[in-house]
Amino acid sequence: MNRGCRYLIGRAAAALFIVLLSRPLLGIDVTQIRRVILSQEKAVLMAAESFVRTEDGLFIIPDYRDGNFKLYDDDGNLVAVWGKRGPGPLEFLSPRSCHYQLKILAVSDFSKQRILTFKRTGKTEFEKVSEFAFPVLDKFNLKLADGRVFIAGLISLSDKESYSLFSRDLKSGDIQYLLPTEAKYGFSSFSQFDSKKHSVLPIGNAGFCDVMGNYVYFIWEGNLRIIKIDRTSKARESFGERTPSYRQPRVTSALEIAMSLLSAKDAEAEYAKMSFVNTIFADEGFIGVVYQNYDGKDSLWKMYLQLYTPAGKLIKESPLPDAVTYINFRASNSFYDRESNTLYYLSIRYDEKTSLDRYEIVAFKIESERPEP
Q1: Helix-then-strand count for the chain, H and E
Q2: Which CATH architecture does the domain made up of 27-369 adopt?
Q3: Which residue from 12, 47, 183, 277 has the least number of CB within 10 angstroms?
């Protein structure tokens, strides 16, 4: 074989290797594998809107009404209550969003407008690592990645400049601003957003993010549009598919009237006609988005999962059985474990017998495969 032939064969083999790596997923299976009811016997979980799962199967849930953390084992038994409510340096007023990675727990205390990080030193022991103030103007969600905390929340730099996604280095304090507020809502400039914000803000302002490699993925609760951001160049692209199950939120005249009259009941009646995104998570082979629809027959908000390729092609959409909430609670009540490819969702039902919320963690295995060459 001459040198030219060997060269061509080598180029063809390299090209085939690249094609195989970039082949779309052949299929994805989403299977419910567990349901775990959280015990309310030893201590009542009063109000939660986020949680994490550790590498050894411990569920850590901030209780923002009780000002502490409830820790449960893999069977839903209460293991410990950590922290207490108060204004002190090691106390909490309203712990809400949290994330866990490499034995580091990050949590936002909304009432204090502070973010705290702790190192897990034992099964139920934590040592404070850092604490810093963040003048975020609304509730926010956070993720840990590469020694930084990524914050999906509004921060204003001036009356004409604000951001809805940014990150902070946990050691140096360096801040990187990643997504201008106008881009979050789909506007091209701040002035355009400022003149048309009445058309989006009544829907809600919550945003969610996740980090995979050099990309940050962001989504606003009011639109099924994923924004993919290059962390180095800040270049952005977006994708998302509105399927028949998805009900696009809109500021209707009925919603405007309800809000002007401060009628929560009428506003909720309008919201019940819409879909709301409540989380996004990223893995090497796919991007996942969870949104909720109201089912009037059961009086429950029910969850739907969408999975996309990193390039933005919709792979699958399916309901998530038993992943529900009885209130329009648009919070990231989920945690995705990349090691086991498992999505955990914190369902909330009202128990009329005890007059308490009934919390249940539902686990879904996400398995994918690529086509044969």
Answers
A1: 5, 25
A2: 6 Propeller (2.120)
A3: 12
